[in-house]
Each structure stands twice: as structure tokens, then as C-alpha cells.
Amino acid sequence: MQNKSYGLTLFTFLVYLFLLGPLILIAIASFEPSTVLKFPLTGFSLKWYKNVFEVGLFMSTFKTSVIVSLLGNFLALLLGVPAAYALSRGSFRGKNTLNAIFLSPVLIPGIVLGFTLLKFIIISLHIPIYAALLIGHTVIMLPFIIRVIGSSLSNFDFAIEEASLSLGSSRLATFFKVVLPNIRSGIIAAVLIAFLESFNNVDISIFMSGPGISTLPIQMLTYVQNYFDPTIAALSVMLMIFTAVIMFLIERLLGLSYFTKR
Amino acid sequence: MALLQLDNISVAYDQQYILKDFNLSLEKGQLLSLLGPSGCGKTTTLRLIAGFLDAKDGSFRFEGKDYTRTPINKRNFGLVFQSYALFPHLSVYENVAFGLRIRKVKDDEIRKRVMKMLEIVSLHGFEDRFPGALSGGQKQRVAIARALVIEPDLLLFDEPLSNLDANLRVNMRVEIRRIQQELGITTVYVSHDQEECFSISDKVAVMNKGVIEQLDHPSVIFKYPKTEFVGRFIGFNNFITFTERQADGDAVLLTVNGLPFRAKKVPGMSAGMKGAIRPDDLLAGTENEISEGPNVLDGTVKVSTYLGRSYQYIVETALGEFTVNKEMLSPFENGQRIRLLVPPEKLVLVD
Amino acid sequence: MKKRYLYMLLMPGLLFLTLFMIFPLAATVGSTLFQNGQFTFSHYTQFLTDAYFLEILGTTLLVSFMTTIICVAIGFPVAYYISKLPPRGKSILLALAIFPLLTSSVVRSFSWMIVLGKNGLINNALMGIGLIQEPLSILYTPTAMIIGLVHLFLPLILITLVGVMENINHDLVEAAQSLGASRFSAFRKIVVPLSIPGLIIGSILVFVGSLTAYTTPALLGGKQRVISTFLYQNAITLNDWNAASAIATMMMIITFVVIAIMNKAAAKFNPKG
């Protein structure tokens, strides 16, 4: 049945133009030489790309974002890998409930989670903002770590693990020498997905900015609410390239089907 | 005149021919099987007849009309899928009624025809079930009922029994044959299971690499395969390649390595130089039981396995290894010298 | 493996979530029900009689509803088109849909500021061809919010639906056609009903996502508040913790009610048996 409907092809093209057009426009706008974004361009310049590196707040918040995402990722792995292993390995009472609890941070509206964390961690427990930021990001990364690694583990043949145990290896050694190497791509993918989730997060971070502490998306948000120059366009282009690279890696590791599963 | 006629059909995927100059014809009321290993083009042929594939060249005529470009939904052919393809969101009743609703048949007429068809496939009382709640055999019956209720001009089966377990397979094929004969409906049946095809067909076409190697009544194919491929496919495991061949009255005289063989002449016999024989037809015995002479081979038992009814031996001879089955109380030993006799009426010559 | 060990492996994560998610949420909900140590619904009755809040709630629901409807209307045919493409084309279109999904919401909302703004692409183009004299004010309106949210969530419903439609056995469509159905009626009678559970799940994601999104309304909505920006305003700008807690609780309740209703509906439309 090769006779495709041309109407639908055209419609799909227009929808993709809608999806990608604005992102392409940012890229074009980033080369505008004047200080105000406008169309058509008045010339061609790379100075805004240079300017990104000269705005101190972009650099410092970028650093915060990376540190929080990486450290949070590490914490989420420490908490999430054992939990994912237990949830896919064992059968015990309350397993479904526990599974639901571990995945629930994606269901709670981010803005609500951010607010309650502010209220209790910072205000009530007097935890410093930086630590609170880290905790908040760990909470939102945990479900992604557990879901991706859990699905990797569900494809893992646990007979291999039993074979290792029968050959005299301890449980811990078996986990590191047999289980972990076999789910390595799942773990790397989980780290990348969780990293993007955390790096792009606004809803939690926005409640946890304080004097001298903020993440890059929050800094960008504040910037575009006040200025309208092509610096932010240049920065956006750099972030999009960064996103594309990570997406390419995830695709290599898990395939695009990871995204279409619900 | 044939009901269905494929003339010089070619089908290609990515520049690669799956069928090339393919010809097939079928008489009204017959059940024709397309038999062959996977990749032989049998499913392609079926999908072409159904209308899912377009022929690159050639024509497809049905009841004298050109069907080559007729869309699927205008062909009025019933199709039974390997996966059954029952609509999971519709009840058994609605599944069967689907084609009639498309044809805008009146409700009471639909009711009558659906119920009658469920009766025929022995599924009375299952109308309100959903496909998810049916066993494999029941799903298959629904699929058949759904294809039949539209009173198709042609019924097509695509490996309908391959998802069923062995016992059910035998029952269902009897059922399919019964329904087909009861309704006198012309049918094309695709399978890779030789026994299944032979048991239900009026005609079997054995296919290989997009070509029909042999098209005949099952009993003829079973006894007289025309080509080495067909022979192997239906269980002729032993082949002898002769170097000389000459006619001698109602027999054919053959020679290889100075060993003389005779084969009985049959009408339409191949002019090939290869002889084929089934393990069951080959006789085995000790040197005392079989005396030297034409059609006899000396050999040594290499491997023996027990098949239940008989023993099977792999015998090493001057012409290579032979497989032979023999019913006996105490089996030959490995390494034992024995003789094989090739009965002339069982030796079939193939291309 | 001994159950004791399994629970030991789960414990650290569970404790962490209890302390930093479940407890803060429960405490927030709890705090809204008391005033000076007295049990009361007054925080809520206050809001639900406040015209300003009701207007915000109404706008939020309307914007989310419109976003969902538009996403479904656009997403369904496009997802069907993608699901029918050969593998290579399908992968490319899926990748192009996933890319915006992974891109920062700040970047994506900002892109619409470029398009819709006073000196933006649309206004420049329209004035350039002389269709309008004065720039239209599209940016900082609910319409801009809807456009931004559709842009934000369309990829989500697209990939969800493609996933569902890919799982519909193609034999079913062929079976329907062999029974006389045209391509369109096979689509309508087989593909559409079998896609409904996926459509409902996709709609939940879009509706709940729009309802609680912060970045897009904050950047494209201007002075028009929605509940998420209203929550932020109450917490950070006005420092009204009680109000913010009550809003947070209501957002959670609405979210869970929507998820529960839609899940029930999805179960109802699931193929039987």
C-alpha cells in the first residue's frame, strides 16, 4: 500500500515546522550583531557566543548546575541501584506499592515538590540552600534511575547470577563482576537521562536559589525576563548542541524505543 | 477454464526478485497448498493473491476478470492469518459480523449468518466472549468464521495452524478440510508442514526460491518427487548420483562406480541422473540375508538410534552414507558389516 | 535471595524519599487544615470564594484543556503517519520529536518569545507585507501560553501514540481490509479504537503537565497568572506560606483526580479479556 496521502504528508511537515522552526530561529537569531533580537538579521556576528563566556553569572550557575546534577546523579545511583535490583530480583509483599513509591516523584507536580522542599528542608530543617538543591535534584532523578536500570535488569537473565554463585563467588562480588557489567549500558543511559532531567530542571531549582546560588536554567529565566539580547540565543544554541549529543548517546545505548514506551 | 490464473508474475523487494515469471492456476472448488521452506515465496504468492502486494510484472486473473490492480477490499477473498488477527476490542460476534457490517447487511440478516457460521465452526454460545478469553483453537475457529461469513470467492490460509500445539493441529486441519468441502469453497493454503499440506489438499505446489518445483496430487508427489529438492523436502534422505543411464523395457538401467542398479519406469519419470530413496524403503540385512547382485550395497553401521517403531542406522558405503530404518528385535552393532538393498520400484529418479 | 536482604537494599532509598518527599508533602497538606491549632477548612473556603483566584484557576483549566485538545487533534493523525513509515523515516521523525522534548523548557519558551514578540518574526512578517500597521500583542496572553504549551507537550503525545500504534498488529488492518474495509474505515474501526487507551494516557500527560507547568506561563503569560505561577508568587514574592500550601495541596488533588479519572477511562476502553 504505497499510495500515501499527500495531505497527511504536508500536515506532518507543517507540524514539524512548528516543532523545530522556533528552535532553528533561535540559532539564526544568535548571529544577529545588534543588541536587540529582530528579523531579518542586520548582519552576521559571533560576538554573542563570546559574550556568553563573559557573563559571570552564566558561568557560575553553569558550574552549580553541573555539580548539582553530577553529585545528585551519584546519590541517586547509590540509592537507586540497590532498590532497582531488589525490585526486579525479588518477589515480596508490598513490591508493587514500593515500586509505585519509588516512581512517584515524576507524578507529583514539580512546582509543588519544589515548594514543599523549600518549606521543610530549608525553612524548618535549616539545611543550607546548596544541600537542599542537591537533595531536591536527587529526589527527581531517582525515578529515572530506577525505571531505566529496572528495565535493564528485567532483561537480565538471573540464571547467570546463579551460575556465578554456584561457582563460589559471593553475592557482592557477583553483583559487581557479573550483574553490573551486563547492565552497564542501562546504567550509563540512566545517568544521562537523569542528568538531562536535572540539568534542565526549573520547578525545583527556582525555590532554591539564594544569594550567590542558582542554576543555569533559573539564571536564564531571570535573564530573559529582563533583557532581550542575542546572548541568550547563543547560549540556547550551545545547550541544544549539548542536548543533541546526549540524546545521540541515549539512542546508541537504549534505542529510541525507550522514549515511546509508556 | 481455471478460476484463478497467475501469469508470469514477478514480485521484487529492493531490486531482489522473490517471484519471477511465476505461473499458477487453480480450478473451482479445489484446495491448493503452497508448500515450502521459509523464504521460498509461498507467503508472497498468497499476499499477492490477497492483494497486499503489487506485482511488478505479469497478470492475475480471477473468474476471467483482471484482478491485478483490484484493491484488497474489493476482492471479496476471505483471509485467515497465522496470528489469527482477531480484533481485540470486538466480541466474537462483532468480529465475525465485521465484514457484513462493512457490506451494510441488515442487522437481522447479520444475526442469522453470524450464528449459522458460529454453528459451523462449533462455537455456538461464544458470541459475547472477547478474543482475549479464547484458546488458540477457538481463536482460529473465529478467524475462519470471520473469513467465511462474507461468502468469499476464494479462501486464503496463511500458516493457520503453526501457533497451535500438535494435537490441536491435527484436529483443526480435519476441521478445515471438512468446512472447505462442505461449502465447496476454492482455497489456497500456505504451510511449511508437509504432512499438514498432504492431508488436506487436492493439489500441492512445492515451492523453492520463488519457483514451483512440482505441482500435483499429494499422493503423486509423495511417491514420485520430481526434483532433488522436493525429494529431500518430503523425506527422501538417500541420493545416488549415477554416471550412466539407459532404458531397458519397463526398467531403467543405471551405473555408478561399476555398480549396476535398476529402477522401475513410471510415466512422466524424470530424465535426471539422480536416484532417491526413503530410509523406510531401503532394506538392510546381514550378508547372509541379502546376497550380492544388482541394487545391493555393502556397508558398515556407523551410528544407530532407536526411533520407537524401528531402529535407524547411518551406514557407510562405497557411495557415501545412507540412512535406513529397520524394525528388528536386536539391533545391529556399530561397526557391523551389513548389506543394503535398493528395491527397484522404490528407487525414484529426480532432476 | 533472603527477604531481609531485599528490604535492606530498598531501605536507603525509601528512607530518603520518606524524609525528603513524603514527609514534606504530608506536612504541607496537614498544615493547610489547621489554624492556631484548630482544625479548619478556612484556607480553602477563602480561596474558593475569591474571584481573583477563581479567575486564575479557570484560566489554568481552560489553557490546559485547550492545550490537550490541540495536542490530541494534531498528534493523532501525525502519529499515525509516523507509525506507518518505513523504519528509517520513522526513526528520523521520532528523533526530531524527541529532541525538543529533551531541550530545556526555558530555551523552548524563549524561542516563542522571538516568534511572537513585538519585534518578533510574526509581527515583522505581517507588517512587512503590510497586513497590519501596529504590532499584534500575542506574546503575554493566554494564547501565547497555549502555543508554548502545545509546543512543549506535542512531542510527548506524539511519541506516546506512535508507541501505541506501532503495537497494533498490522495483520488487524489487513484483516479488516480483506473483509472489505477501505483504508479509511480500517483506520476508523480498528486503529482508532485500539489507540484510545494510549490517547488517554497521552492526554493525562499533556493535561497534568500543562496544569502544573511553570516556565512556559512564566515567560509567555506576562501578567496573566496560572496556578503554578500563583503558587510561586505567594511563596516567594508574598511570603504567604499558608496560601502557598493550600494552592500546592489543591494542585496535587486536581492532579490525582485527573489521573484517577483518566486511568479509569483508559481501563474501560482497554481491549477486553
From TrEMBL, chain A:
<feature type="transmembrane region" description="Helical">
    <location>
        <begin position="66"/>
        <end position="88"/>
    </location>
</feature>
<feature type="transmembrane region" description="Helical">
    <location>
        <begin position="7"/>
        <end position="31"/>
    </location>
</feature>
<keyword id="KW-0472">Membrane</keyword>
<keyword id="KW-0997">Cell inner membrane</keyword>
<dbReference type="Pfam" id="PF00528">
    <property type="entry name" value="BPD_transp_1"/>
</dbReference>
<dbReference type="GO" id="GO:0055085">
    <property type="term" value="P:transmembrane transport"/>
</dbReference>
<feature type="transmembrane region" description="Helical">
    <location>
        <begin position="100"/>
        <end position="123"/>
    </location>
</feature>
<keyword id="KW-0813">Transport</keyword>
<keyword id="KW-0812">Transmembrane</keyword>
<keyword id="KW-1133">Transmembrane helix</keyword>
<dbReference type="InterPro" id="IPR035906">
    <property type="entry name" value="MetI-like_sf"/>
</dbReference>
<keyword id="KW-1003">Cell membrane</keyword>
<feature type="transmembrane region" description="Helical">
    <location>
        <begin position="232"/>
        <end position="254"/>
    </location>
</feature>
<feature type="transmembrane region" description="Helical">
    <location>
        <begin position="129"/>
        <end position="153"/>
    </location>
</feature>
<protein>
    <submittedName>
        <fullName>Putative spermidine/putrescine transport system permease protein</fullName>
    </submittedName>
</protein>
Automatic annotation (TrEMBL), chain B:
<keyword id="KW-0813">Transport</keyword>
<keyword id="KW-0067">ATP-binding</keyword>
<dbReference type="InterPro" id="IPR013611">
    <property type="entry name" value="Transp-assoc_OB_typ2"/>
</dbReference>
<keyword id="KW-0547">Nucleotide-binding</keyword>
<dbReference type="GO" id="GO:0043190">
    <property type="term" value="C:ATP-binding cassette (ABC) transporter complex"/>
</dbReference>
<dbReference type="InterPro" id="IPR050093">
    <property type="entry name" value="ABC_SmlMolc_Importer"/>
</dbReference>
<dbReference type="Pfam" id="PF08402">
    <property type="entry name" value="TOBE_2"/>
</dbReference>
<comment type="subunit">
    <text>The complex is composed of two ATP-binding proteins (OpuCA), two transmembrane proteins (OpuCB and OpuCD) and a solute-binding protein (OpuCC).</text>
</comment>
<dbReference type="GO" id="GO:0005524">
    <property type="term" value="F:ATP binding"/>
</dbReference>
<dbReference type="InterPro" id="IPR017871">
    <property type="entry name" value="ABC_transporter-like_CS"/>
</dbReference>
<dbReference type="InterPro" id="IPR003439">
    <property type="entry name" value="ABC_transporter-like_ATP-bd"/>
</dbReference>
<dbReference type="Pfam" id="PF00005">
    <property type="entry name" value="ABC_tran"/>
</dbReference>
<feature type="domain" description="ABC transporter">
    <location>
        <begin position="4"/>
        <end position="234"/>
    </location>
</feature>
<dbReference type="GO" id="GO:0016887">
    <property type="term" value="F:ATP hydrolysis activity"/>
</dbReference>
<dbReference type="GO" id="GO:0015418">
    <property type="term" value="F:ABC-type quaternary ammonium compound transporting activity"/>
</dbReference>
UniProtKB/TrEMBL annotation, chain C:
<feature type="transmembrane region" description="Helical">
    <location>
        <begin position="190"/>
        <end position="214"/>
    </location>
</feature>
<feature type="transmembrane region" description="Helical">
    <location>
        <begin position="92"/>
        <end position="117"/>
    </location>
</feature>
<feature type="transmembrane region" description="Helical">
    <location>
        <begin position="137"/>
        <end position="162"/>
    </location>
</feature>
<keyword id="KW-0472">Membrane</keyword>
<keyword id="KW-1133">Transmembrane helix</keyword>
<dbReference type="InterPro" id="IPR000515">
    <property type="entry name" value="MetI-like"/>
</dbReference>
<dbReference type="GO" id="GO:0005886">
    <property type="term" value="C:plasma membrane"/>
</dbReference>
<dbReference type="InterPro" id="IPR035906">
    <property type="entry name" value="MetI-like_sf"/>
</dbReference>
<comment type="similarity">
    <text>Belongs to the binding-protein-dependent transport system permease family. CysTW subfamily.</text>
</comment>
<keyword id="KW-0812">Transmembrane</keyword>
<protein>
    <submittedName>
        <fullName>Putative spermidine/putrescine transport system permease protein</fullName>
    </submittedName>
</protein>
<feature type="domain" description="ABC transmembrane type-1">
    <location>
        <begin position="57"/>
        <end position="262"/>
    </location>
</feature>
<feature type="transmembrane region" description="Helical">
    <location>
        <begin position="241"/>
        <end position="262"/>
    </location>
</feature>
<dbReference type="GO" id="GO:0055085">
    <property type="term" value="P:transmembrane transport"/>
</dbReference>
<keyword id="KW-0813">Transport</keyword>
